[in-house]
Amino acid sequence: MNYKKDISREDLVYFLSQNKKLSHDYFEKECIDSGISLSLTKASVLVPFLDINGEINILLTNRSVHLEDHAGQVSFPGGRIDSSDISPVDTATRESYEEVGIESKNINILGCLDAYQTGTGFRIMPILAMIDHQTEFNINHQEVDSIFFLPLRFLMDSKNHSREIKSFKQGDRSYDYDFNVIQYKDNYIWGATAGMLINLYDVLTSKLK
What we know:
Nucleoside Triphosphate Pyrophosphohydrolase, alpha+beta, globular, single chain, eight-stranded mixed beta sheet, three-stranded antiparallel beta sheet
């Protein structure tokens, strides 16, 4: 589907709002139902939507090349779920503030996407949120090199989606990895982040039919 019309803030909130308690128990159940192993490292990310001059955009980060996990890749703000986090939502909002300065008072939680399993040993709960009244961002350069905004209109054009195959080596074993790619300007979005964005595209496409 190549959806040419902008999705308004009101429509986005209507399409994505869910009456769900996004708790640790909910995340566990979603993983079990999806066949995702509970032994994988728990993580949560924020999928932040912003209305910029009347157009919905998604905030994404370029991760620092010095990080241990997914260095240099495009990512949503977020991270591992700590034992002290009240819920996956708490993780996503805390990490978003630490990484790029999104204040919790500006975050309107809508719902979540499907639980996502990475090839690097993580299981992720993507939290959908509308960000209001946030005009400046405080980037923590120990974790994030820069941020950019992906127009939702760009994501909703399937011509901007592609798939690639790369070969990886893990010890003595090599394997091919087939993954989603979204190239936006100089930003190469792939792997888990692209996979979650395609999940968002599928959800919105089903609502627009």
